[in-house]
Amino acid sequence: MGLARSAYAKPEVVIDPGGVSPAALQSINGAIEAITRLAEDQDGGEVSRLRRRAHDATVSALETQGYFASKVTLEVGEGIGGEFWEITIDPGQVAHVDQVELEFEGQITRPEFASRISTLKQEWPLAKGMPFINESWSSAKSTLLDDVSRKDFFFARLASTQATVDAEQAKADLSVKVDSGPPVKFGKLTVLGLKRVPPELIDRYIRYSPGDPYDQDKLDDWQQALQATSFFRGAFVTLDQTPNEQKKSPDGDLELPVRVQVSEAPARRFTTSIGVDSDNGIGVEGLYRQNVVFGQPVWIETGIGIDKNRQRAFFDVNLPPTLRGYKDSVGVLYNHSDIEGLDNTRMGLGWKRKQERKAAGNSRVEYETQWGLIGAYDRTKIKGAETFKVPTLVGTWQWLRRDVDKKYDPREGNLIDLGLGAGVTLDKGEPFYRAGLRLQQWWPVGRRDVLTLRGEVGKVWAKTDRLPQDFGYRTGGARSIRGYRYNSIGLHRGDAVVGAPALAVASVEYTHYFTEQFGMNYFVDVGDAAASFGQMELALGYGVGLAVRTPAGPFFVDVAYGQRDRRLRLHFSLGIAF
Q1: Could you tell me the pTM of the whole model?
Q2: Domain that holds residue 40
């Protein structure tokens, strides 16, 4: 069958890259692939035009990567599978930047901005001797304009840009002219969308005096601060560019109002949830939340939760975040638990401060820091042993660093969690202390699989046995050492298991996904909670399980064998909120 046939199949393409960069080859492949798809079922004349387009697209793709003196040939052949195109590339030299001319016009040329212009020129990213790549050229222009327009000069624009390429000499001369426009100042504050939230909340975060220089970073910070509160569904902080709202000073500066547009969150919200897991059985929870209480910019949250091991209730008053992002709350709680013969009832009054922040730049690293102070009264009944009551005051500090690709279903990255605590019994003045460290690492394997390694150590120092029961360490169950009952590993006192002074747990897990949603995980857990690290007799658990990815995160059903107890156990959890 000849080339003049009436209908064509998609041609096979063979490219001899001639030593071009990987980025250039990727660009060429993308351009050619788009054209070859069009060649199917076309007549001979249209396919001939597509060949010319393929040639021209290859030349254009090379130019975007700095190859302006390339030579491209496209030869057509006939094979067993039909027509094929053989593209041969002689890329020549990559053009490099030679001369760079940066010009500025407008009010930025005033003497007080001389250092600003000097800094902009020094920070120009596409310097002499660098390869002239189209993406780098576009990025450099955008970065320069952004650096000018983010502070003082809201109306800055690129007046002209030009790149003159000498293909034979492989050189590029660059010219960019920026028109700054007039300096812009912050004007009066206009707030839209407030109904129940008091205006004082806006004033808490947006602090400036009319006439202060425009700074886009401040607008962004104010908007982020408002969005971080629980009072708004959305918040937008911008400059009002309406002509009749602009004021012009005698020296030519413009004053633009600061416009805040908010959408308030619902005044009240009530949620319930029901769940079941292998550790605590069936559990139900109810939560009530109210924004703005008695006209004040605070929100309250109260709730109850019940399962076979615990019954709890709390009432918290949450203050709006501070300018540095600290979130403070105070509250009261009641908690009753009965696990492995340890029956504990707690009533407490506490304060908590939390700060969440991201690392600088485009880093995905996140930090969470939390401080707490709680005064509590515990009544502890130990099956087969003594009952005691103890009032305590406990301070805690927790620092968490998270560096993962996905927060709720990580496949790559790590997590570090460090916690410290110190307390005293209020009736006898007996001090006690605690330190704990938790580490977790995820490694991607192949296309979908994940290898996970986690470890946790903790230590308590005290000269009294009358400790709050959440201060000591117990382990065992779905989230610690699988193959054992929930919190069944610890110190044995009477017929109960109580918190131990020392904890060490490690786990390795491999999850193989057959599809994007379903997989199988294989794991080994080991650890103990004992009077000291030297007295530990490590409990080993290992098994397999089903892994299911859901919108709320991964769901696991594990079957584990606890070697110490010589028993198989099923571990799982499932919850529904409504």
Answers
A1: 0.73
A2: 12-90
Query: What span, in angstroms and rounded, lies between the C-alpha atoms of 470 and 463?
Result: 17
CATH number at residue 107: 3.10.20.310
Q: How far apart are CA 252 and CA 26, in angstroms?
A: 50
Distance CA 150, CA 104 (A): 16
Number of domains in the chain: 4
Residues facing 400 on adjacent strands: 368, 417
Residue 347 phi, psi (nearest 5): -125, 135
Banded model confidence at residue 395, pLDDT cuts 50, 70, 90: very high
Regarding whether 436 and 379 lie in a shared domain, the answer is: yes
Cβ neighbour number for residue 111 with a 10 Å cutoff: 6
Token reading at 67: 């190859």
Query: Which pLDDT tens digit goes with each residue over 275-327?
Result: 888 888 899 999 999 999 988 899 999 999 999 999 999 999 999 998 888 99
Q: Which two tokens mark 99?
A: 């001369």
Q: Report the chain's mean pLDDT, rounded to a whole number.
A: 90
Same domain for 82 and 118? no
CA-to-CA distance for 377 and 389, rounded, in angstroms?
7
The answer to whether the CB of 7 falls within 8 A of the CB of 42 is: yes
Give 340-360 pLDDT, tens digit per residue: 999 999 999 999 999 999 888
Q: What is the pLDDT of residue 168?
A: 87
- Pairing outcome for strands 296-306 and 232-239: unpaired
What CATH number has the domain bearing residue 547? 2.40.160.50
Which helix (H) or strand (E) element contains residue 493?
strand 491-493
